[in-house]
Design goal:
The protein has one domain: Nuclear Transport Factor 2, Chain: A (Roll), CATH 3.10.450.50. By secondary structure, the protein is of the alpha/beta class. The chain is built from six helices and seven strands; from the N terminus they run ααβααββααββββ. The protein has a seven-stranded mixed sheet with strand order 1-4-5-6-7-2-3.
């Protein structure tokens, strides 16, 4: 229960912008000039784990992608996958196929770290063609990570497009 409470606190801090007063995902036409708002702790160890996960999927390396997930990872993307094995046996292969067909650019990446937990929030632009369908969209991603035996592991992913 203590870990879930800490996780909730970390998530709430990350979502509210950790007191920065600027939402990285604000709606509207106003363009922010301050890159520091868009990339916060993007070179941190948890951010590098997130990047390694994405690179593993993009390079058709399911073993590395799987190794970055906790066994009981919870993944939300239209539906729910409740373990790394479930994701690896089902949706991961479709994600690898999709990422091979499109190009994704990270527009924002913020990571809030509290002790042995971190929350990664990012926004990306994806373009290309997948299964004869033109793709041109922005995606949002939230990942929760935990430091386990010296390695950052992903415990939760929420993707939306």
């Amino acid at each position: 229960m203590k870990n879930r409470t800490q996780l909730l606190v970390v998530l709430l801090i990350a979502i509210t912008g950790a007191g920065l007063g600027v939402s990285a995902f604000a709606d509207g036409d106003k363009k922010h000039q301050d890159a520091a708002v868009y990339f916060v702790n993007a070179d941190s160890a948890p951010a590098k784990a997130v990047t390694a996960f994405h690179r593993a999927l993009e390079s058709n390396d399911p073993q590395t992608a799987r190794a970055l997930l906790l066994d009981d990872v919870l993944i939300f993307e239209g539906g729910v996958e409740r373990s790394a094995d479930e994701y690896a046996d089902h949706h991961m292969l479709a994600d690898i196929e999709y990422l091979a067909a499109v190009e994704t650019t990270v527009l924002e990446h913020r990571v809030e770290i509290t002790g042995h937990s971190a929350v990664s929030i990012s926004r990306s632009k994806t373009i290309g063609t997948y299964r004869d369908k033109k793709i041109d969209n922005e995606g949002l991603e939230t990942m929760v990570l935990h430091l386990i035996n010296g390695s950052w592991k992903i415990s939760h992913i929420h993707w939306s497009h």
